[in-house]
Amino acid sequence: MQVTALDGRTVDVGRRWAPWRLRTPGFQAVRDANPLDLVSRSRDAGALVFDLVVAAIRVLVVGGGLVVGFVFLALQVLVFVLVVPVVTVLRLIGVLPWVVEARSGDQVLGTGRARGWHDSEELVREMAADVQFGRHVGSGSAQPITRSW
Prior knowledge:
The protein contains three helices and five strands. It is an alpha+beta fold and 149 residues long. The two termini are 19 Å apart.
């Protein structure tokens, strides 16, 4: 459920389906790395060859990091696909509680737990009302939303 906070932020309030949040590997270093930076500063043929070797090593290192990042992401997705259906069934029958989150972008404003679909829906509505009326993290003196059912 999307609501607008008093400060104008859009806040999403809803159930967290996965038992954890997927983390994507950061590719900032890959975007910033330019293996040919050294080549442009070469003054003679010997320096150019040396710079090309260093550039090739940099490509291998950055490329290796990229491969490890994709392998890590693929393993997370595989575990996610295998675990989420089991956890969802356990949550639907009331064995495990649903985790309800209020999020603005990447920032978690508050969480709550409720057992069963109906109780978690009620908690979503209650947390959305809290956000709309200014009772959430980030509004100054307000306390974090933390509820349990």
